[in-house]
Amino acid sequence: MPRSELTIRESWKIKINRDKCQDVYFSGRRNNPDHPKLYRRAIPWSDSTKYLGVILDIRLTFKKHIDNNRQKVNAIKSILYPLIGRKSKLSLSNKLLLYKSLVRPVMSYASPVWGAAAKSLLTKLETAQNIIARQITNSPWFIRNRYIAKDLKLKSMKEYFKKLSTNFFNKIENINNPAIQEIPKYDPSHPRKKRRPRTLLIPD
């Protein structure tokens, strides 16, 4: 960290805990540059960090974030099982409401950022939704997932992420904020941009 920034923070009585600092070098390269230093002590590189609830890995694949989301969903599902499980006396509409209100927001948090992740990763969340849909409908094993989703009028996770991303990017286009307006534009259809967030806006 530049000395000038440290001086400013010290003048504001702000002390940075170097033991809690993390450095992540976002790059496809295998070799990292020299360790950055804070108070003359090197800060080791980390392969991921959490920022505003999103786990960012060095190659921005969002694998750790999606795996973490899946674990959260499993934990919430266990808590809600008496209400949304096969033996629950709640109506189907109330079970579906619980899923949409308490579970799906966890899976889709900040999805405009990571929703264009690899299909193999997003499939994990789709599978989680399918399992819950089977629970709340008490469907037998031979009923296909797509028929259950159709009866529930439940969008696939990809469709839901696309809806959230469309709303998000439409809103920021109309925000009169210089910092937001200065964000570089790019063509999401370009092959080298296929993992960028705006890729979700491309029509199927």
Could you please describe the fold and organization of this structure?
The protein has 204 residues and is mainly α. It folds into 2 domains: 14-56, no CATH class; 61-175 and 190-201, no CATH class. The protein has 8 helices and 4 strands. The chain has helices at 3-11, 63-84, 92-108, 111-114, 119-137, 145-152, 157-173, 178-181, and strands at 37-38, 41-42, 48-51, 54-57. The strands form 2 sheets. It has a two-stranded antiparallel sheet with strand order 1-2. A two-stranded antiparallel ribbon has the order 3-4. β1 (37-38) and β2 (41-42) form a beta hairpin. α2 runs parallel beside α5 (119-137). The protein is globular, with a radius of gyration of 21 Å.
Keywords:
2 domains, transferase, 4 strands, 49% helix, RNA-directed DNA polymerase, two-stranded antiparallel ribbon, 204 residues, mainly alpha, Putative RNA-directed DNA polymerase from transposon X-element, globular
Distance between the termini: 44 Å
Strand order of the largest sheet: 1-2
What is the subunit organization of this protein? single chain
Task: Tell me roughly what share of residues is in helical segments.
Answer: 40-55%
Number of strands: 4
How is the main sheet built? 2 strands, antiparallel
**Helical run tally:** 8
Q: Work out the strand percent.
A: 5-15%
Number of domains: 2
What coarse outline follows from CA principal-axis ratios? globular
Average per-residue pLDDT, rounded, comes to 86
Order of helices and strands: HEEEEHHHHHHH
